[in-house]
Specification:
The complex is a heterodimer of chains A (about 230) and B (about 400). Helix content of chain A is about 35%, strand content about 30%. Chain A has about 230 residues and is of the alpha/beta class. In chain A, the strands form two sheets. In chain A, strands 6-7-8-3-9-10 form a six-stranded mixed sheet, with helices on both faces. In chain A, strands 2-1-4-5 form a four-stranded antiparallel sheet, covered by helices on one side. The longest helix of chain A is centred in the C-terminal third of the chain and has 16 residues, at about 180-195. Chain A is globular, with a radius of gyration of 17 Å. The relative contact order of chain A is 0.20. Chain B has about 400 residues and is of the alpha+beta class. Chain B is elongated. The chains are: A alpha/beta (about 230), B alpha+beta (about 400). Chains A and B meet through helix 2 and helix 3 of A and helix 1, helix 11 and helix 14 of B.
Chain lengths: ~230, ~400
């Protein structure tokens, strides 16, 4: 039977080396994440939520267990296919924005899709749409240092959005923003979910948790609570 | 194309650092270019001095003459000199033709005598071309029918001075002892002690008269450009198959070719030292520049860029830096050499010489391409190792690097 979940996580364990000992970040985690929902990964610092997000985004290699993305297991995936999935199907939003400082707002948003080989007109159209969605149409020529925190995070969202990904993975996207600005970002992400994009957010911000369709709470690398709205 | 554009924009990320890298590369490429130009200048000067001191651009003689010993060597000499000379004058680039014969014998002055190896030469013609033959006393041999030019060691041995008469004894090809008085025109020094202790020069007509032959032992030539030698040599030996040629480099193999090889080796050693310094200098700066962008590289990788894409980005940056630095270095070196050091560099007297002289820089397109290529390659190597260092980290580790 075909797996209809966005992510299926089975017996997932992960540890980091710290000197001569291994620190367990995830311990035999089993969970299914549905598509087209806003899912939050919560828990205190060191609970493993960022590690899980990194594993889901193929930016941390699997150690033990399995993750399947739309039924395709990561463990048997070639690196080139992993690059393809990161390029086309996954959009990232980081806490520290990670905008490219030498490129303008427009170039930051269009860079990765222009690398996909799309026609220039299509790249331009999509970039304009994405920047319009996040309300930055008037700032396209600005460099990142000329923007406020919220504007930078909006550029990061537009960059994730412009690829029309299957899922957006956001690592504490509101951590560097004030409450009002953070709410602005969450409203934007919720609108994306309404348009059919899956969003998975790692957070311990109660405001963010209030937007969740599904909450996954971790403690010491273990799933302690899972619930739907 | 996007990667190349991004790499270009990265040059403006930290202008001070970019400038430091460009200056380091420029100093390296400029130093390589200048040193190569200087060595080329030395080699050119050395080549011209060798050609214009005594051997000309090369000489022709009968086949096998230099490799064999003959009881009656004059029987092997060139009998149809006029035909050969006429043909040579028709060849492009030939400006001077110097017929020569060897004449050995005893030089006597007062009660001192010494055996010497003489050269019968067309002195008037040779005086015009052989400007590097240093006359240390008296004047060159030109049209003085009874003049003789002595090597420094030879003149000292018989205590002969310009204006004095010496008697020369030799044996004709028919076995008869002949003698003639010559007046010392001058004393020369080439720096080659063996040559200066043995050799003297007289007019070729006088030498042929004493020997009793009209034949010519060898024909040296003076060209407008040493690069014409191969063509002239090939056409002459094709026309006169009984002749063979020896270039000035072959004639002066030990004196000239070994010195050129020594200069070449010296250049290559300095080249390696300069490149190593440049490589170490820029590796550190480029590494810092790339390592502090680990997070950004992690972001690129997280968005689907492969290791290959990131390496392309890093290498393009290296290519731009190497090219800009290389060109800046070449242009600066050329400007300094052309305007500030346009006369060249003043050198102390060379071996066997008494005067200081200037070595001018000689720049060629090939040297510019070599210096530029080496600058770019060094920068690419430094960029490659710095890039690989970051790319070997996992993406998550790159993203955590703040």
């Amino acid at each position: 039977m075909q797996d209809t979940h966005l992510f299926s996580i089975k017996d997932l364990s992960f540890s980091y080396p710290m000197g001569s000992i291994q620190v367990c970040a995830l311990d035999r985690l089993n969970v299914h994440i549905p598509a087209k929902k806003l899912v939050t990964l919560s828990g205190p610092s060191g609970s493993g939520k960022s590690t899980l997000l990194h594993l889901l985004g193929l930016i941390e290699p699997l150690q033990k267990g399995e993750i399947a993305f739309l039924g395709s297991p990561f463990s048997s995936m070639k690196k080139s296919l992993q690059n393809q999935i990161r390029r086309r199907d996954i959009g990232f939003i980081f806490q520290r924005f990670h905008l490219i400082p030498v490129l303008s707002v427009e170039e930051n948003v269009s860079y990765f899709i222009s690398r996909m080989g799309w026609p220039k007109s299509e790249v331009k159209k999509r970039t304009e749409e994405a920047l319009d969605t996040v309300g930055l149409s008037k700032h396209i020529k600005k460099l990142p240092f000329e923007l406020s925190g919220l504007q930078r995070q909006r550029v990061a969202i537009a960059r994730a959005l412009v690829k029309n990904p299957k899922v957006i993975l956001a690592d504490e996207p509101t951590a560097n923003l004030d409450q009002t600005t953070g709410k602005g970002v969450m409203d934007l992400l919720q609108k994306l979910v309404e348009k059919g994009v899956s969003v998975i957010i790692s957070t311990h911000d109660p405001m963010v948790l209030s937007y969740a369709d599904m909450k996954i709470h971790l403690l010491d690398g273990k799933l302690v609570q899972q619930g739907d709205k | 194309m996007q990667i190349m554009y991004f790499a270009f924009r990265n040059l403006f990320r930290n202008l001070r650092r970019t400038l430091a890298i460009v200056i380091t590369i420029a100093v390296g490429s400029g130093a390589l270019f200048c040193f190569d130009g200087f060595i080329q200048g030395v080699q050119k000067d050395f080549r011209e001095n060798t050609i214009r001191s005594h051997s000309g651009n090369g000489e022709f003689h009968t086949k096998g003459y230099l490799d064999s010993a003959y009881e009656d060597p004059w029987k092997e000499w060139i009998s149809n000199y006029d035909d050969v000379a006429d043909f040579l004058y028709e060849q492009p680039g030939v400006e001077y033709i110097f017929p020569r014969v060897s004449i050995n014998g005893m030089l006597v002055h007062h009660k001192k005598s010494i055996s010497g190896a003489g050269q019968g030469i067309d002195a008037d013609e040779e005086a015009e071309f052989f400007q590097s033959l240093e006359i240390v006393d008296g004047e060159p041999l030109t049209d003085q029918a009874n003049g003789i030019l002595l090597g420094k060691g030879l003149a000292k041995a018989i205590d002969a001075h310009p204006g004095e008469e010496i008697r020369f004894y030799t044996k004709s090809i028919h076995g008869k002892i002949r003698s003639r008085y010559f007046q010392v025109a001058g004393v020369f020094e080439t720096g080659n002690a063996d040559f200066d202790n043995r050799v003297f020069r007289i007019q070729i007509g006088a030498a042929q008269s004493l020997l009793g032959t009209s034949r010519i032992e060898s024909i040296s030539i003076g060209l407008n450009d040493h690069k014409n030698w191969d063509a002239v040599s090939a056409s002459l030996t094709a026309q006169f198959p009984f002749l063979e040629s020896a270039s000035f480099a072959e004639i002066n193999k030990i004196w000239y070719q070994h010195s050129m090889d020594w200069l070449d080796a010296q250049y290559h050693i300095i080249q390696i030292i300069i490149l190593t310094i440049v490589l170490l200098g820029i590796f550190n700066t480029i590494s810092t520049s790339i390592l502090e962008r680990k997070e950004e590289i992690g972001n690129l990788r997280a968005n689907g860029e492969s290791v290959f894409d990131v390496m392309r980005l890093v290498l393009y940056e290296g290519l731009f830096l190497g090219t800009i630095g290389g060109f800046v270095g070449l242009a600066s070196a050329y400007l300094v050499a052309s305007f500030i050091l346009h006369q060249g560099i003043l050198m102390p007297p060379g071996p066997g010489q008494t005067k200081q002289f200037f070595i001018a820089f000689v720049f060629t397109e090939k040297m510019a391409v070599t210096a530029l290529s080496l600058s770019i390659i060094s920068t690419l190597i430094a960029s490659f190792f710095a890039g690989i260092k970051v790319c070997r980290m996992s993406i998550a580790k790159q993203l955590r690097s703040f």
